[in-house]
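ASSEMBLY PREDICTION REQUEST
Request ID: AP-0331
Submitted by: J.K., bench scientist
Number of chains: two
Total residues: 826
Priority: normal
Notes: Please return the full assembly, not individual chains.
Input sequences:
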Amino acid sequence: MVNIAVLGFGVVGTGVVEVIRKSNESINRKAGDNINLKYILDIRDFPGHPESSIMTKKPDDIFHDPEVNLIVETIGGTGIAYEFTKRALLSGRHVVTSNKELVATHGPELLQIAKEKNVHYLFEASVGGGIPIIKPLYECLAANEITSIMAILNGTTNYILTSMAKEGKDFDTALKDAQVNGYAEANPTADIEGHDSCRKIAILSSIAYGMFVDYKHIPTEGIKNITYDDQKIAQALNFKIKLAAYSKVLGNKVFARVCPVMLTSSHALANVEDVFNAILVSGDAIGDVMFYGRGAGKLPTASAVVGDIIDIAKNIDRSHMYVWTEKQEDNLLNPGEVETRYFVRVKVRNSEEAKNYINKIFGVTEFIGLLGYQDQLAFITNKGPDKEISGNIDKLKEIASVSKVLTSLRAIE
Amino acid sequence: MVNIAVLGFGVVGTGVVEVIRKSNESINRKAGDNINLKYILDIRDFPGHPESSIMTKKPDDIFHDPEVNLIVETIGGTGIAYEFTKRALLSGRHVVTSNKELVATHGPELLQIAKEKNVHYLFEASVGGGIPIIKPLYECLAANEITSIMAILNGTTNYILTSMAKEGKDFDTALKDAQVNGYAEANPTADIEGHDSCRKIAILSSIAYGMFVDYKHIPTEGIKNITYDDQKIAQALNFKIKLAAYSKVLGNKVFARVCPVMLTSSHALANVEDVFNAILVSGDAIGDVMFYGRGAGKLPTASAVVGDIIDIAKNIDRSHMYVWTEKQEDNLLNPGEVETRYFVRVKVRNSEEAKNYINKIFGVTEFIGLLGYQDQLAFITNKGPDKEISGNIDKLKEIASVSKVLTSLRAIE
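STATUS: Completed
Returned structure:
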């Protein structure tokens, strides 16, 4: 018997309870054991709720009950969720979570405790909602040296960018519509500024490269500066603008970044629209493989949580031991040194002078025609160190023939 | 120590050896044990080969060696491969394979033996090459009732269809080019007639729905009748023609089919080009999730085989027990009763008369304009039982105003 306590009865918590109730029989069959929901912890009242007989506001009801051997943490954040998770693991209980902030922040410590106590700390739901990615990356692709990951990991920003591109909205309108439709939160900062994607690529990279990648050191840009014009021009040029989260391993160092990019429309991620997520993984044997689906939502996320619960039930006496090394301060590459191209669009006072200058400092001779934007120039730079190219873009702001740098986005083929 | 014997040193077998040699250290670390390649069995000579010290032509060298605890079967087919697999499992050895014919044909018996002997019989490589699909389907999505699968499972036919569409080739030229480029075998029957896809959808369906789906009962059509005109017209109408393998569960019965289909270009599978494979899985909690990558090739396939080897090393004392029920003759739905739409293109003698007739028997009033094909009509039927619609299409062949039915393909939105 696996006795479960769900901590936090919000969106994901209710989804987990719903899935367990709905598919109880097939879940028990697949788990080879009875999955018994014993407690739901939440500080709020749910009067008349069908689950009220198992609800409690007292954590000790759970932690003092020796029958509870699996904790589902769906509280979120790094406060009380951290405290409960640590307490659960230290007391020899398995923990399943969807909490990306906690895993990205305290992953190494919590995984170490889980390893010492021979229990599981599983978090498939923390990245990509219901898309199976952590386990496939760690287990199915184990024969590979993973060389890079490129992903769309945030449904909110992808929804906003898609509706800007398809429906000709500016950013503010698209954001408001996303909020009205329930695809963006009232406070959308974590999504639109890229923090959510940043934590997720940190988790994926840690799994893929076997060393803890600290999200605090990943350069992260959001999508607030993307304009309707950017989208219109990208479309005309057969590009898509996406908020990409990507990383690669070079020697024993990792490079990771979150930023909006221009993707050629033939790129595997270019057609990932609306709230969908996709993760493109490259390995030395497999080549490219992609995982695609709904990256958020009550039931998809619950699907991943319950998948982890079943996994634990089948392997209750042994931990999975995701092998992350301890924190290292120096395992991230200087992102300024990593080579990239930029797509640049400028407003010019004197087109010929500007072209000559751009040719001189960027070595660019080909300019992209922008129908309907006669006083503008656009070009794609050669590949070079990020810092050098962005420095050159900064210089453009100071020359007389250029009145404004309208867009500078990394371009990915 | 896991002592491995590789049976069959063909494309996949050499790939497995290559991956184990190349990434030995990281594989051992992830497996938590030493993966030791002890034998390679092949009836051929490989004079001067670097692995010649572990090569043998005598199966008994392997089966009489009690140290060998894991057999990699990469022989293919259902002859000697069946015999060796059965012998290996009965003698308490784990078996990993890429052999889809064997799994699709003798899966229930072999899985039953594996279960009785508490050993693993794993076959991640049998579907989708290196794409992780069997384990994600069985484990990560275990919280779901899987409701349907739609997939492109054969790289050869997808390559041919893509080059017909992109390069304006007819079928025979595209097939020849695929053979020259190594994407089609000298005898391409199993691929182009859909048999390969059929075995793979049978395996996936058996895993997804928890009951053995016998490939012999899955209606299967290949791509030989697809013409250059079909491709040109599909493109103009924003469709893609793909060889689809699909199945769904209805009550306690399964419907499965392999056939070329017209997919709207916004369908998740429509942009799967060249030799790539993709599998779209729908579950009651997850919604849609897609797995995409190279469905064949030496190293991608070896990646999946070695992933299974690592999995076994980590769980050497317990079997996975993929739960398939025994063969049931009556678990497949009558495919004629399943609802579908068809795209139909006919050559007409009298357009108005033909339209009237089509309107009368199909209830269709909208016809698709075919620029450059003045003596032709195209339309998409309403949804109805497959047998009824295909029967009506057959009737078209007999009326005076229609001189020929050029195309009839199931249409999928």
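REVIEWER COMMENTS: Chain B has a mean pLDDT of 94.
SIGN-OFF: pending second reviewer
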